[in-house]
Structure formats: C-alpha cells, structure tokens
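Worked Example 4.2. Consider the chain below.
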Amino acid sequence: MRPTLTHIALHVADLESCIEFYRSYCGMQIIHERSPEKSSADSPDAGKRIVWMAEAGRERELIFVLMPGGRPQTPAPRDYGHIGFALESRAAVDRIAERARREGRLSWEPVDEDYPVGYYCGVSDPNGTVIEFSYGQPLGPGAPTESAESPAPGEQARHDA
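Applying the procedure from the previous section yields the following structure tokens:
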C-alpha cells in the first residue's frame, strides 16, 4: 500500500484563537476533541486538549490536528511556505483578502499568476502560519477543464527549457 496523506498537525501558541480562525476563515469544524484527562501519560501532549478539525464532508479525507504548547511562527522574508485552500471565485479571494487586511492578517496581497498557480492571497493564522486562498489552481473549485496546460492526474507538466 502506498502512503496516504491523512492529517496535518500544528503546534500552536493559542489553541482557542486558532480554532476560531480555522472555523471562520476556512469553514472547518471540530470533529474530535481529546480532553486533557484522556491523554496518555506517555504522550508528549499529556494533560493537554487536542482538537481535530475538518471541512464538512471531508472528515475522512484530511484533517488538521491542533495542539497547544507551540511557539508563534515568524516566516522569513520571501518565505512562501503555506497551507492552501481553494475558493469558488476570484471575488471570494478578494473578500478574504479584504477581511484579512482589515484584521491585520494579510500576508500577500491578491496576485494573478499563470497556470497552475492561479489567483491567490495569503493570510496569517493567529500562530503565524500562512494560509493561501486561491482560485484557478488544478485542484478544487475553479480548476480548469482538461487542456494542454493541465496534465492528467499522475502526470507531470512539461515545461520548455
């Protein structure tokens, strides 16, 4: 059997603010919670509340595990490490960017790039992890239909040297 990506675990400084961020910005919901009393004494997170979050209908595909006790992240200049979420339109990307701008969370202004990058912006979660919101990438809403630009699943795009 080949490995399958099932979760991303984030150690965060402020668990409650991260839960609220992923609820309100990403539409995720808590699907499982481990109370401090139920953690194994041998676990590195013994005595801590651990939260699993997922998008509705995707609870068995990919989850975020949020764990307290982390340190805030401060990305280096020009560090484009991020976690990506697809949106239904360019207007939806603009709405997220405007909200993040008002809240002081906007990391990257909306930008439009050639396929497969698409239209996107970056928003910092309360821990400093950058979340990309995009439209027009090969996955999710706005994915282009089959064309010469979009390789079939499992194929690599060919680029002229």
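Helices lie at 15-26, 90-102. The chain has two domains: 7-68, 74-149. Compare this with Example 4.1 before moving on.
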